[in-house]
Amino acid sequence: MTDTATLEAPAKLNLFLRVLAREQDGFHGIETLFCLISLSDRLTATRLEEPRVTLDVTGAECGPTEDNLAVRAARMVLEATGSRFGVHLDLTKRIPVRAGLGGGSSDAATALQAVNQLAGNPIPRHELLQFAARLGSDIPFFLSGGPLALAWGHGARMLRLAPLPAAPALLLVPPVAISTADAYRSVDAAWQGAGRRGAVALDLETLSSWGNIGRLSGNDFEFALFGRHPEIKRAFEALAGTGPLLCRMTGSGATLFAVYRTARDRDDARQMLAPKLGQALAVETVGA
């Protein structure tokens, strides 16, 4: 057992994202391809003698402590293990918040692992994955440890894939915050009366190269949000004009990303676009 555990909490991209029909539980089904990137938060969990969970955040405003996913994850592990100690979480935020990059979900997955370490790893991996699914739809992917995965349903049903080659990528974060609930409402409003798209047949060969993924890529939130937020559409068109292999919006927005053949292509694009169209971050996708 240890008194402190420090782990990185990586961000993700949705290389494609399809929003399917609203299901009986009120949530929409999705079909998506998750990919980890080098940008990450850092979480340190420290054992406390008192049975409570506290949180300090630097780098961004993350809202009330009681609503924080990492705090909820820590409490879930402590309750499940019957641990009589508490945990203090120090969270350094580098991933932009409410931007479609999965920062809060990754923090929660990392908290599950870190607090389990403090308790002596009594919870096996398959049970931690069940905890992750109860907390949120993206969290099982971050807990899985794989850099690439196809997910469907609410995102908890998942198939890990062989990673793509690591590639330079550029994140463009427009100065627009979009909540996930608002994004789904925009999708429903945009598709009202237009019918709902179905899932697309995929095979492993289709998902094995950047070129193939670039040809099938898409994000249904783009259709809904570009009309409501012309500044995001302008930024997307400018980013797509820099010659990337792949250019999309990730998650429910508003972050845009482009994957390039070389780091020089990415860096040239960053110099061209920043800062007039938003925060531009040079990253790498995670390979093997």
Overview of this protein structure:
With 288 residues, this protein is of the alpha+beta class. The protein has two domains: 4-160, 2-Layer Sandwich (Ribosomal Protein S5, domain 2), CATH 3.30.230.10; 168-284, Alpha-Beta Plaits (2-Layer Sandwich), CATH 3.30.70.890. The chain has nine helices and ten strands. It has helices at residues 69-81, 103-118, 125-135, 139-144, 180-191, 210-216, 220-225, 230-240, 263-273; strands at 4-22, 28-48, 53-58, 86-92, 148-153, 157-160, 168-173, 246-249, 256-259, 279-284. Helix 1 (69-81) packs parallel to helix 2 and helix 2 runs antiparallel to helix 3 (125-135). The longest helix is centred in the middle third of the chain and has 16 residues, at 103-118. It is globular, with a radius of gyration of 19 Å. 44% of the residues are buried.
End-to-end C-alpha gap? 30 Å
Structural class: alpha+beta
Give the overall shape, derived from the CA principal axes. globular
What proportion of the residues is helical, as a percent range?
25-40%
The low-pLDDT segments are none
CATH level-1 class of the largest domain? Alpha Beta
Number of strands: 10
Please identify, by name, the CATH architecture of the largest domain: 2-Layer Sandwich
Characterize the largest beta sheet: strand count, sense, and whether it forms a barrel.
6 strands, mixed
What gyration radius follows from the Cα positions, in whole Å?
19 Å
By CATH, the topology of the largest domain is Ribosomal Protein S5, domain 2
Number of domains: 2
**What is the H/E string?**
EEEHEHHHEEEHHHHEEHE
β-strand amount: 25-35%
Give the averaged pLDDT, no decimals.
91
